[in-house]
Amino acid sequence: MYKVIERRMIVPNLHEFTVQAPAVAESIKPGNFIIVRPDQYGERIPLSVADWDRDAGTVTTIFMQVGGSTAMLARLKPGDAIPTFVGPLGKETAIDTFGTVLCVGGCYGIGSIYPIARALKQAGNKVYTLLEARSSFLLYWEDKLAKVSDQVLVITRDGTKGRKGHIDKIPEIMQRAGITPDLVIVNGCTFQMMRVSMVTKPLAWKTIVNMNPIMIDGTGMCGVCRLSVGGKTKFACVDGPDFDGHEIDWEEFLSRRKSYNPEEVDPLRRSSCRSHF
Amino acid sequence: MADEKPEKKKLDLSRRAMPKQNPWERIKNFDEVALGYLTRTAVEEASRCLQCKKPLCNQGCPVGIDIGGFIKCIVDGDYASAIRKIKETNALPAICGRVCPQEEQCEKTCVLAKKEAPIAIGRLERFLADWEAAEGKIEVPPMAPKTGKKVAIVGAGPAGVTVANDLIILGHDVTIFEALHECGGVLIYGIPEFRLPKAIVNREVEYVKSLGVKIYTDFVVGKTKTVDRLLEEFDAIFVGSGAGLPWFMEIPGENLNGVYSANEYLTRVNLMKGFRFPEFKTPVKRPCRVAVVGGGNVAMDSARTAVRLGADEVHLVYRRSKAELPARAEEVENAEEEGVILDILTLPVRLIGDENRWVREIECLKMELGEPDASGRRKPIPIEGSNFRVAFDAVVMAIGNSPNPLIPMTTPGLEISKKGGIVTNPETARSSRPNIWAGGDIVRGAATVISAMGDGKIAAASMHKYLMNQE
Ligand SMILES: Cc1cc2nc3c(=O)[nH]c(=O)nc-3n(C[C@H](O)[C@H](O)[C@H](O)COP(=O)(O)OP(=O)(O)OC[C@H]3O[C@@H](n4cnc5c(N)ncnc54)[C@H](O)[C@@H]3O)c2cc1C
Ligand SMILES: Cc1cc2nc3c(=O)[nH]c(=O)nc-3n(C[C@H](O)[C@H](O)[C@H](O)COP(=O)(O)OP(=O)(O)OC[C@H]3O[C@@H](n4cnc5c(N)ncnc54)[C@H](O)[C@@H]3O)c2cc1C
Ligand code: SF4
Ligand code: FES
């Protein structure tokens, strides 16, 4: 069993979740994920790592409450125990001295982009971090990110902070600031990763996305996490989760990710649990 | 009547049937299909044994169980000695008795195989293991004094559990690291409840724990800690990480929704208990028309699982003929009884989806049998222009697995075969690195439970020698 150290809602529907798991903490690298099971009947769900403390032996993730399993996680209190917290899984994000790197985070990806930005900064890159949210009250960890970035840029859809607009505005914002990134790294919801890949493709800005398909084992055993990259089938849990965003078959990816909605998501809508959405 | 020559008792040579759940009942539940011998039937079956002077059956058993010996004990009514005899060489008889392909092993070499029908060795083995469990008197073997040597085992499948069992008895300190949240490997996530109840697998795992083996689940060696990192703490390592990488056919449409690897399909149902969704939270689809591609045990298990999940029609799509089906004969028979339709000499070439990217049809080619190929079986050759399409709303790919690449990828200096397996010396199960041993499916590719256990035995013996500085 793994002890929950902290679980608190940091902005509406997003929870910061810290668990005691020393062996996992010891080996984590930016871009890895863990798999958690909330109780003995629970699904195995993957969450990206957002921070860790090797001395204290703790691992922090940020999760969004979307369906049944994340709703169970959202009810955990410090001191509770969960049966599974396994990792670190997946290949780490490649960290090197690339020059100028644009780190894009949205939703839970604001958390998981943090260790990536930190490592890139340590490796001597110029790091610009761009956060996107529907509104300013959905932003978090801006201070943490500011410490590891040369500059933090913000886009909100309602204009309550930073640039008003959609993630599609990235090229415009960057060009106006006079920045041409050597590499773009995106963490967050699928739609955001897809849109960023689409707008950077014509500019030939190399774009790495941290893919989040449905998973079960996370060790390459079941194949449910497969996706097409450059026309080849890859297993995200062992070949990724980082892939070149310009090579992904996004339409296939989105449809595979929704394939259990009739079982998992629709019943919630029909029940009284409106709070899930 | 002393002067009368005692009449030689005539042997009743007919093999005793094992009671099973009726097909029309069992397709509605996940309970075990085969119900096991009653004591009387077991003794009758054992009495058929000729007690050959030079028995051939033992030679067919990959771990060389003293088969004649344990059968004799059954005839004498001494079940405790019988099970003890088996356990001298096989720590998991309840499992082997259920899933070994006996017709390819011990029962193939039994002399009665050529006359009437071979002794039902597997069923007798199962009878004894179940008898022992029911008596509740599982005997603990004598334990050697502690040696102070530490051994790590990667993977809690049959190979790893066998090594753990043997080495703990020899006095070593044994720790198993298992990636999943439950132990048993394929016995837990692959082979369904209706063929091998999970309570039996758990019982065996609890048994090695009771001997003092430490088990860490949720620990992915190579990720959580590498083999080399473990070698800082342990004197020797056994890798039994199995054949966890599913193959696909590499035909168009395989990434459509509704197309599953057998591993995914079976894991959702067995390990995650999807058939009890939503009590257990992992969902599993309940499609109407299911095609399972393949012909081995994995394919049979997938097809029979689909039947139990309520499919109207389940087809097994296999490219060779029925005689070549690699699955256990008993399971092919069970599958057919349960209504699985065999589409033999059929090769899928394309999967066709609808506008929402859900699979709707398979396009297949008819095959004919040509000359024998490398495996000795007649090679299936496509008949040109024989393409036809059949409607399905789910397709399960059960065409094989390769060795799990995680340990080979993260352990420098390990010699790896072309097929991705760890290369070992067959006499010692030792790898190219002196303190690493390996066995089971990670070495052989998808094989059998008993061969994984056989490898485990060989490895344990060699590791013991090494640990005691006897080499
Ligand atoms: C590598 C990776 C990293 C991820 N990192 C994070 C993270 O840091 N924070 C976060 O909030 N979310 C993350 N996700 C997504 C997260 O796993 C899903 O939101 C979660 O599984 C939903 O579970 P649920 O039962 O609450 O929702 P459900 O009701 O089960 O499903 C809601 C939606 O979530 C997706 N989903 C369902 N089951 C799974 C599954 N087993 N694996 C992946 N997706 C699934 C599907 O698209 C589904 O439509 C990540 C996914 C992957 C693959
Ligand atoms: C559906 C199905 C039906 C079958 N039916 C039969 C049958 O009827 N008869 C028969 O004889 N054989 C059958 N087999 C084959 C048989 O199950 C295997 O040959 C046997 O289980 C191999 O044992 P193993 O110990 O080598 O590996 P596995 O049973 O595969 O166990 C390997 C274990 O290692 C774990 N692992 C992997 N990587 C790591 C890591 N990096 N760190 C920690 N743990 C790790 C895995 O999670 C797993 O638990 C069947 C196989 C399948 C899939
Ligand atoms: S272990 Fe398998 S091969 Fe050996 S006697 Fe038992 S059933 Fe036969
Ligand atoms: S999650 Fe099972 S293979 Fe990737």
Provide an overview of this structure.
The complex is a heterodimer of chains A (277) and B (471). Chain A is α/β, with parallel strands linked by helices. Chain A folds into 2 domains: 2-89, Elongation Factor Tu (Ef-tu), domain 3 (Beta Barrel), CATH 2.40.30.10; 100-257, Nucleotide-binding domain of ferredoxin-NADP reductase (FNR) module (Rossmann fold), CATH 3.40.50. Chain A has 10 helices and 16 strands. In chain A, the strands form 3 sheets. Chain A has a 7-stranded antiparallel β-sheet. A 7-stranded mixed β-sheet of chain A has the order 11-10-9-8-12-13-16, sandwiched between helices. Chain A has a two-stranded antiparallel sheet with strand order 14-15. In chain A, α3 links the parallel β8 and β9. Chain A is globular, with a radius of gyration of 18 Å. The two termini of chain A are 30 Å apart. Residues 270-277 of chain A have low confidence and may be disordered. Chain B is an alpha/beta fold. Chain B folds into 3 domains: 23-135, Fumarate Reductase Iron-sulfur Protein, Chain B, domain 2 (Orthogonal Bundle), CATH 1.10.1060.10; 150-244 and 402-467, FAD/NAD(P)-binding domain; 248-399, FAD/NAD(P)-binding domain (3-Layer(bba) Sandwich), CATH 3.50.50. Helices cover 32% and strands 16% of the residues of chain B. Chain B has 18 helices and 16 strands. In chain B, the strands form 4 sheets. In chain B, strands 3-2-1-4-16 form a 5-stranded parallel β-sheet, with helices on one face. Chain B has a 5-stranded parallel β-sheet with strand order 6-14-7-8-9. In chain B, β7, α14 (297-308) and β8 form a beta-alpha-beta unit. The radius of gyration of chain B is 23 Å and the shape is globular. The termini of chain B are far apart. Classes of the chains: A alpha/beta (277), B alpha/beta (471). Chain A binds chain B through residues 23-24, 26-27, 37, 41-44, 68-69, 83-89, 216-217, 219-224, 226-228, 233, 238, 251-252, 255-256, 259-260, 263-264, 267, and chain B through 179-181, 189, 217-220, 223-225, 244-246, 248, 250, 254-255, 257-258, 260-261, 263-264, 267-268, 272-273, 277-283, 285, 356-357, 404-406. Residues 61, 63, 65, 67, 90, 96-97, 100, 102, 105-106, 121-122, 125, 450 of chain B line the site of iron/sulfur cluster.
